[in-house]
Amino acid sequence: MIRKLISRVFRGNKNKGNRHEPAVIPVSSHGITRDRLSSGSRRTCETLQAEGFKAYVVGGAVRDLLIGADPKDFDVATNATPEEVRRCFRRSRIIGRRFQIVHVMMGQEVIEVTTFRGTLDETTKKDEHGRVLHDNVFGSQAEDAARRDFTANALYYDPTTETVIDYHHGVGDLKARTLRMIGEPRARYREDPVRMLRAVRLAAKLGLSIDPEAKKPIREMAELLENVPAARLFDEMLKLLTSGHSVKCITQLRDEGLHHGLLPLLDVILEQPLGEKFVMLALASTDERVRRGKGTSPGFLFATLLWHEVLAHWDKMKAKGEAKIPALFQAMDTVLDVQGEKLAITRRIAGDIKDIWALQPRFEQRAGKRPYALLEQPRFRAGYDFLLLRAQAGEIDMELVEWWTRFQNAEGDKRAEMLLPEAAGDKKKRRRRKKPANATPQASDA
Ligand code: ATP
Ligand code: MG
């Protein structure tokens, strides 16, 4: 009976649908009870509703709950303006300039509360390729739904009634495990080319297939990504790489033709024959960490993605007669200057990357006091994990990693016994290295 009702609403609602009534799906059908929400998002909705506003949990969280995945965060959508939202919560602040959203602090949680967005029209500012630049009008809930990218992302959950409000057949599409674009895919990619990357990432992460209508244009429209600001691409690529499904995403991006000069980061990943094994291992290990709920650091990730570039430059510098450590530091700077800019790597992440790279030659030193000093380095663990990946990829001998594994875990005396004898040549080399031309602190103590 309910099913019949729902499918009738769906049928009448399949097309564009701003003006159509949405399907209101009861808990008996979708099975998501309000206790599945974070307490912060639930309380945020309840407070706004008590003040007479509409408020729903929206987007990725509803989608993830419906397919049995763990939502990353719970966003709220409302018809209250940012100013009105702010007045409802003592601990809240408005952020953003163009399209303002409100961060509501609930205990440890920060809930992102967004006012329903309105329809784009002729007055919407776009660049010469049709990419939407400003998008700051408020609208109705139906308009808000139509502005979202995929049907599965346009679902609203009301914690009070435990219903899912579905304007675009999202629940049905999710059941069919399909990622379907709302509206005409080409037009939606033109408005925002990043949606192509989102399609690939969400499909890989959620095990959905991209509806052919939405999939077909990706290949032809890929070059529109060139006009997207680097910082936005970086954010999206970082999401993709830390989704827990990076290997699948990267493989699919390659299949969709979304590489070769379009995304500098993908060029780096896919176009280095020597580094491919290393990069794929690194991505697989990141995926594994994400799935086990362990943290990942962008610094570590990018250090792996760019390592073989560093190796190539390092070899060049050494061939020119530069000493080993200064050559490494010059290679690091060259790679970060070139790639860092293209990829919009932030300064802080660049610092992390350098730390990890700079530690690598220090693992080769297994005599005297130096191994002890290395253990005390705050970045030791990341450096060691990096070393392990290098060994797994066949770049260096596994014996070195095994030595460090044992050395870390050995007790005092046992540790001392492990040290290698200081080679005579080693000392001479070290004395010579005391005054390299452009020594950095790490270089001279290495
Ligand atoms: P994730 O699991 O990565 O958080 P998500 O779908 O929640 O996936 P967010 O970036 O958190 O992604 O976006 C929240 C919601 O905002 C989406 O579910 C979607 O409804 C809408 N949205 C995000 N990006 C876009 C976009 N580029 N175009 C249209 N709607 C978007
Ligand atoms: Mg989200």
UniProtKB/TrEMBL annotation:
InterPro entries assigned to the protein according to its UniProt record, in alphabetical order: NT_sf, PolA_pol_head_dom, PolA_pol_I, PolyA_pol_arg_C_dom, PolyA_RNA-bd, tRNA_ntf/polyA_polymerase_I
Keyword Coiled coil on entry: no
Enzyme class (EC, first level): transferase
A molecular function GO annotation: poly(A) RNA polymerase activity
UniProt-annotated catalytic positions: D73, D75, D149
UniProt biased composition (Basic residues): 427-436
UniProtKB keywords: ATP-binding, mRNA processing, Nucleotide-binding, Nucleotidyltransferase, RNA-binding, Transcription, Transferase
Record carries keyword Transmembrane helix: no
Catalytic activity: RNA(n) + ATP = RNA(n)-3'-adenine ribonucleotide + diphosphate
Start and end residues of each Poly A polymerase head domain: 55-180
Its job: Adds poly(A) tail to the 3' end of many RNAs, which usually targets these RNAs for decay. Plays a significant role in the global control of gene expression, through influencing the rate of transcript degradation, and in the general RNA quality control.
Protein name, per record: Poly(A) polymerase I
Gene: pcnB
